[in-house]
Design a protein that fits this description.
With 221 residues, this protein is an alpha+beta fold. The chain has one domain. It is built from five helices and nine strands, in the order H-E-H-E-H-E-E-H-E-E-E-E-H-E. Strands 2-9-3-4-1-5-6-7-8 form a nine-stranded antiparallel beta sheet, sandwiched between helices. Strand 3 and strand 4 form a beta hairpin. The longest helix is centred in the first third of the chain and has 19 residues. The N and C termini lie far apart (35 Å).
């Protein structure tokens, strides 16, 4: 079953910024709990972890992240029908994929995917499409893990496209040369790229499995 509208309309902005960690569910839950409790020991606060009914669908799980917060204080970690777990924060603008997730991937030495799926890039609209992969187990320098980024973003009236890192064999490199920038990276391309990693991005049945809603009310996450 596929329902792209779930991602783009009903749950914006939560569903326009997503992360996946290549970890087993119970392991990521234990590691994330340790991370949050370490922060609480420094900054104060409380930690709660609620294991959710395995019959909940993705829409039900996402709705539990409300209300959104300027500083994320709730986190959804969900098993998928693959080696990857979904990770979402309840930030006002969605998950800050280059803050805690990138740090955790390096700390845990695992692969992760970070996605921007805000595809409304027409005149007067601002957003971004991004496919980002990183491997926290492989360092390319003292401060940089091995990664690959393909990004189309619009923060002003100008649309910008960039890609960094070594391309994967499956990438549609010819698209990156198209004259019209918004055709260089599309939602469909991102979904195809994810599929090569075993992540069926827009298949809601893919997200069936164990999940947890975490409330980490600390002062700095």
């Amino acid at each position: 079953m596929k329902n792209n509208l779930l991602f783009f309309q009903e749950n914006h902005p939560i569903t326009t910024k997503l992360c996946f960690f290549k970890m087993e569910f119970n392991k990521i839950l234990a590691m994330f709990e340790k991370r949050q409790k370490d922060l609480i020991n420094i900054w104060g606060g409380k930690y709660y972890c609620n294991l959710l009914d395995s019959n909940l669908n993705l829409k039900n799980k996402i709705e539990l992240l409300n209300p959104l917060s300027s500083l994320p204080n709730q986190y959804l970690i969900s098993e998928t029908q693959s080696d990857w777990c979904l990770y979402i924060e309840n930030g006002l603008y969605g998950t800050d994929v280059f803050s805690q997730p990138s740090y955790l991937a390096e700390e845990w030495k695992v692969e992760y995917l970070a996605l921007y799926l805000d595809c409304n890039l027409d005149k007067g609209q601002y957003g971004a499409l991004m496919f980002h992969w990183g491997d926290g187990a492989v360092k390319e320098s003292e401060y940089q893990i091995k990664s690959r980024t393909v990004l189309l973003h619009k923060e002003t009236e100008q649309l910008n496209f960039l890609h960094e890192g070594t391309p994967f064999p499956f990438e549609k490199l010819e698209s990156y040369k198209k004259r019209t920038k918004k055709e260089r990276l599309t939602i469909e391309m991102i979904a195809d790229y994810c599929n090569y990693f075993g992540v069926r991005l827009f298949d809601l049945d893919f997200y069936i499995g164990e999940s947890a809603l975490i409330n980490a009310n600390n002062q700095k996450t």
